[in-house]
Structure formats: structure tokens, C-alpha cells
Design the sequence.
């Protein structure tokens, strides 16, 4: 006896719920082939097919079936079905980058839900509109090199709309007592405030997200909240607080046995301790990051670790180790075809050779044999085959041109670098002039600094994006030199500064000059988003 359309559809739904969307699709499509005169059932099958294809990342097919669902819902006068189909279409169009069409669909979902006094549907529509505007804002900003809060007005306007929709969603879900929905909204609202440069409101939102994650025992959401809090505190200049949050991120990543996130947390901690001028700890965490990157065959992460280690060793005046890691960075950049990274590595090597008074050729390093790193002592190992596991991460830059308030710098511990490593990178954060006294509440726009620099000259030469080439946020490879963005992880990478070496005229000619260099603070951190959309799984 042949199974009916409804029986096949119910089995497809069961399989999708169990996580086997591919098998579920087969049953749904079989149900469509069998057919039914019940148009509401057929509409529901189209909706489930669209959702299943969405989760299989086959967005064109998802779009096709959600269109079928919308057409059928309109034909039978099913307003609730039309609202849900419109919402699902909006989410799918957003992923495809068709933001204006997505907004039209989500607004239709919102309007119909309000017309039907469907509070749940209204909340979902508001949340989805926030997600669409959030994604649109990041997409528009992908060609720039701005830090959070410094995007063009067009981008800020779009991101502010996202924040407004998240706020409206929160007002409803709080009224409904839906704590899970509140958690998602707080997380994404925090990320939006972060991009707008509203770092204190971002902290408030992420603290609420953390509280709700703990209520539900959701360790993954808790870990995301800690990491996002660390990012916000970095831009508030509260580096010690940021470090504590990243340590909690690291602890949770280990509990969850997520080695990739563990590597990211180590990397963020390495960057934070660089900002704290504690280079020994920075090296410790970057070496841990390097070890995990090698374990995961992650060439992108390994290259980033080598770059960071080279700079940290330079700051400590250990130029031999710096040279080794600069060479490894060059080798990896060549291997993965990263022209930007290769150019940076070459310049770093050139600078180091100038400091050491040596000549360098890219074919054979003068230090490659005599100054090899003992990998066993660091816990790292020689490089084997690799995969790219850091491509879809949300990266946020901290550029060398930031201006920090003297109170912030005064909070930090005394300088830890050796005298040979001049801490010019701290002063490099003074690269931009104070824009307006009215913006004094924005920490990153303050130009005062507790370090006495009255008699110092600091090089500010940058590599322009035009020189390096900006390959866009959706490339398969995260780069050092350009901003990156992915819909789920929205990477924002900074431009990278070359090491600028200042020669000391008083150094005796018979001694190897010690490096007076600006530390290259491209320091990237990882942002974690909540669930991207609020799909209607069942009708």
C-alpha cells in the first residue's frame, strides 16, 4: 500500500527534526509527487522543503519553495501562511545578499502579523528585520578599513535601524517572558552597538546575554558572550578586564572541547597581552594558538600566529626568534597564495635584517639554519598538510591609529618590555588627532597619552589597501591586510602596518643595534553572532 502525501510529509518532518535534512527532503519531494487536494497541507510541505534546503545551504532551492508557499498561501487566502512565507523568503534573500528584497518580505511579515494581532509573529519579524539591516550594514562597509564606530554615515544609518528593530523585538519578548528570544536579541543588539562604536551599551547587552545563557546552562552562548564582552572592553581600553573575559572564553572552549575556538581565545589573549605590553604572556598564548593551528592543519591560523610571534619577539629585542617567525610567516603566505601576507613578511624581514646589519634573500635565509626554533620546547611541531579553519570567523581590527585616553593608559601595569624594545607602538595609538571635544565620552577618540613623547618622532607609514589589494569579505581566506566578513561571523580585519625601524645614532658601530620599532597592532578579535534568523519551521 502506497504512503499518502501526508504520511510522507510527516516522515520528512521527523527526519528534519532529527537533523537529517537530506533524507527529509527526499520524503517531502515524494509527498509533492504523490500530491494532495488539501492546499494547506501542500503549502506546509513547500514551507518545510524551503527550510530544509536552507539548512542544507542550498539557498536557491530554498527560495524556490518559499516562493511556491507564498503563492499558494495567497491563492487560498491564508494570511498567516502568507506572513510566515514572507518571513522565510526574507531570511533566504538576506543570506543571498539581496537585502532590499529581504526587507520588503520581512516588512510584509511584520505588517500582516500586526494586522492579525499575532504578537509572536510580530516579534519574529522585528528580529529578522534587525538581522537583515545588520547584514546589510556589514555588507556596505566591507570595502572600507574603518574601526567600529568609524563607518560612513550610510553604514551607521543602516546599523542604527538594526539596533532599533532589535530594541522593538526586545520590548515584545520581554512582555511575553520569552527569555530565550531575549538572549538572542541581546546578543545581536550588543554586536550592533559594538559596530556602531557604542561600546558601553554593547557591554550592557552582552552582560544580559551572558546572564540568560547561564540561566539556560547554555555553555556555547555563554562562551560567545564572554568573547564579545572581551572585544568591547578592548575598545574601551580596559585591557585587563578584556583579558579576564577571554580567559573565561578559553576555559569554556576547553570544556566544550572546541579546539578551533580555543585557538581563537588564545589568539585574542595574545593580542590583549600585547596591548598590556606583557610580551612574555603574549608569546605564551600565541605559541598555544600556533600549536592548535598546527594540530588542526590550519594554515591561516598558523600564519597569523607566526606573524604575531615575530612582532612579540621583536618587541622583546629577541631578533633571532623574530626572524625565524617572520620567515615562517613568509613561507606560509607563499603556500596559501596570500600576496598581502607575503608582502608584509618580506618587509618585516627586511626591517629585521636592517636592525641586525645582515643581507637577506628570500630564497635562503641567513638565519634559517643557525637560529631554528626548538619546537619541542614550545609544544609546537613542524608543519604538515593543512586546512583553512579560520576563514569564517568574525574578526575585528584594532588599528595602530587609535587614540587612547591618558586615564586608560594610566590604568595599565608598568611597561614590561625590555629597554631594547622601545614601546613606540603605545604612542602609535596617537596617530589620529582629537576630532572634537564633544566626543570626549568616546574613549577611542581621545588623543592624550600618559607616555611622554614630546621629543620622540614616530613613523606612521602605512600600506594602503590599494597597494595590497582588497579581496572582499566573502573570500575563502582570511587575510592580514584587508577587512573580511561572513554572514555568520562577519570578519572585520584591519590593515597591517609594517615594522618601522628607527635607527639610534648614538649606538656604537661595533654593536648590533637594538630595534626601536613600532609594534604592528593589527590585533584581531573574534565576534560571535546569535542565531541569524527566526525561521518558521512548521505551519
Sequence:
Amino acid at each position: 500500500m502506497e504512503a499518502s502525501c501526508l504520511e510522507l510529509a510527516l516522515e520528512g518532518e521527523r527526519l528534519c527534526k532529527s537533523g537529517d535534512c537530506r533524507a527529509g527532503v527526499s520524503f517531502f519531494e515524494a509527498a509533492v509527487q504523490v500530491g494532495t487536494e488539501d492546499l494547506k497541507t501542500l503549502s506546509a510541505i513547500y514551507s518545510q522543503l524551503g527550510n530544509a534546503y536552507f539548512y542544507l545551504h542550498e539557498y536557491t532551492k530554498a527560495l524556490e519553495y518559499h516562493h511556491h508557499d507564498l503563492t499558494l498561501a495567497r491563492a487560498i487566502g491564508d494570511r498567516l501562511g502568507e506572513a510566515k512565507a514572507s518571513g522565510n523568503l526574507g531570511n533566504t534573500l538576506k543570506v543571498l545578499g539581496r537585502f532590499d528584497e529581504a526587507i520588503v518580505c520581512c516588512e510584509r511579515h511584520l505588517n500582516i502579523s500586526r494586522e492579525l494581532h499575532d504578537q509572536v509573529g510580530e516579534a519574529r519579524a522585528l528580529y529578522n528585520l534587525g538581522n537583515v539591516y545588520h547584514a546589510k550594514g556589514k555588507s556596505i562597509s566591507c570595502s572600507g578599513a574603518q574601526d567600529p564606530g568609524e563607518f560612513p554615515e550610510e553604514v551607521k544609518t543602516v546599523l542604527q535601524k538594526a539596533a532599533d528593530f532589535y530594541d522593538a523585538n526586545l520590548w515584545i519578548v520581554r512582555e511575553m517572558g520569552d527569555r530565550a528570544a531575549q538572549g538572542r536579541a541581546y546578543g545581536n543588539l550588543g554586536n550592533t552597538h559594538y559596530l556602531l562604536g557604542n561600546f558601553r551599551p554593547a557591554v550592557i547587552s552582552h552582560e544580559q546575554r551572558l546572564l540568560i545563557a547561564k540561566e539556560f546552562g547554555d555553555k556555547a552562548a555563554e562562551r560567545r558572550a564572554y568573547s564579545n564582552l572581551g572585544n568591547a572592553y578592548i575598545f574601551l581600553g580596559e585591557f585587563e578586564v578584556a583579558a579576564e573575559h577571554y580567559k573565561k572564553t578559553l576555559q569554556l572552549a576547553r570544556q566544550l572541547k572546541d579546539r578551533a575556538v580555543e585557538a581563537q581565545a588564545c589568539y585574542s589573549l595574545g593580542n590583549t597581552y600585547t596591548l598590556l605590553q606583557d610580551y612574555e604572556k603574549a608569546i605564551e598564548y600565541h605559541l598555544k594558538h600556533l600549536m592548535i593551528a598546527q594540530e588542526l592543519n590550519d594554515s591561516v591560523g598558523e600564519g597569523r600566529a607566526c606573524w604575531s610571534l615575530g612582532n612579540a619577539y621583536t618587541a622583546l629585542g629577541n631578533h633571532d626568534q623574530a626572524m625565524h617567525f617572520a620567515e615562517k610567516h613568509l613561507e606560509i603566505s607563499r603556500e596559501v597564495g596570500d600576496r598581502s601576507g607575503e608582502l608584509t613578511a618580506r618587509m618585516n624581514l627586511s626591517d629585521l635584517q636592517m636592525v641586525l646589519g645582515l643581507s637577506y634573500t628570500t630564497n635562503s635565509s641567513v638565519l634559517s639554519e643557525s637560529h631554528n626554533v626548538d619546537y619541542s620546547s614550545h609544544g609546537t611541531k613542524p608543519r604538515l598538510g593543512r586546512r583553512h579553519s579560520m576563514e569564517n570567523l568574525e574578526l575585528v581590527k584594532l588599528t595602530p591609529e587609535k587614540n587612547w585616553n591618558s586615564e586608560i593608559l594610566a590604568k595599565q601595569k608598568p611597561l614590561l618590555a625590555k629597554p631594547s624594545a622601545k614601546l613606540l607602538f603605545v604612542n602609535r595609538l596617537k596617530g589620529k588627532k582629537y576630532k572634537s571635544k564633544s566626543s570626549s565620552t568616546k574613549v577611542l577618540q581621545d588623543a592624550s597619552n600618559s607616555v611622554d613623547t614630546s621629543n620622540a618622532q614616530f613613523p606612521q607609514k602605512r600600506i594602503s589597501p590599494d597597494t595590497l589589494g582588497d579581496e572582499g569579505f566573502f573570500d575563502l581566506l582570511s587575510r592580514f591586510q584587508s577587512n573580511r566578513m561572513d554572514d555568520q561571523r562577519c570578519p572585520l580585519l584591519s590593515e597591517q602596518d609594517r615594522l618601522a625601524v628607527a635607527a639610534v645614532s648614538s649606538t656604537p658601530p661595533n654593536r648590533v643595534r637594538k630595534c626601536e620599532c613600532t609594534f604592528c597592532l593589527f590585533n584581531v578579535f573574534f565576534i560571535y553572532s546569535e542565531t541569524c534568523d527566526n525561521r518558521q519551521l512548521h505551519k
In short: The first helix runs from residue 5 to 17. Confidence is low (pLDDT under 50) at residues 360-377, 384-523. The beta strands are 394-397, 524-527.
